[in-house]
Amino acid sequence: MEEATGETACFVDLSVMETITRCIHNATPLCAKYALRIKSEFQISEKRWYRNKIKSLAEVGSWSELKRFMEEKRSPVGYVPFVDAYITGGKSKEAAACMALIPDERVRMDKLEDNQQWMEAAVLATKLSDQQRIVEIYRACQNQQIKADIQVLAIKIGVKLK
Length: 162
What we know:
With 162 residues, this protein is mainly α. The chain has a domain at 104-162. Helix content is 68%, strand content 0%. Helix 2 runs antiparallel to helix 3 (29-41), helix 4 packs antiparallel against helix 5 and helix 4 (46-59) packs parallel to helix 6. It is elongated and about 60 Å long.
């Protein structure tokens, strides 16, 4: 691996997962092969592999590679870790694009709020008739026009906001 990276001693005293992370951070095709080989040899579970690769790609800001990885096959860890990585990395547009892949509507509503997609979260709260949640969304939103629209939605489920 050190030959592939051109660095000496950069893989010494690392755990298996740290070694895989370092390979992913390096982003060379040869290092990617090493990471897959280590995964196979040490029988790293798919869930652990996915979580580590998502985290590693986000750390280095490899957003196109993260998107490609997300679309590669159905994720064994779901799509929340991808959304979280995008939000943490300041990529709200990308987070919004994969929000629909989250099947649990309550979790999706949480992530919409995390991504400050207030109107979408309010629409979902209205659909679920979640009165408490629409109040929370209203209070968190800072945009007056969106707040006015949320008030209209809140009235539909019997909540008066001020």
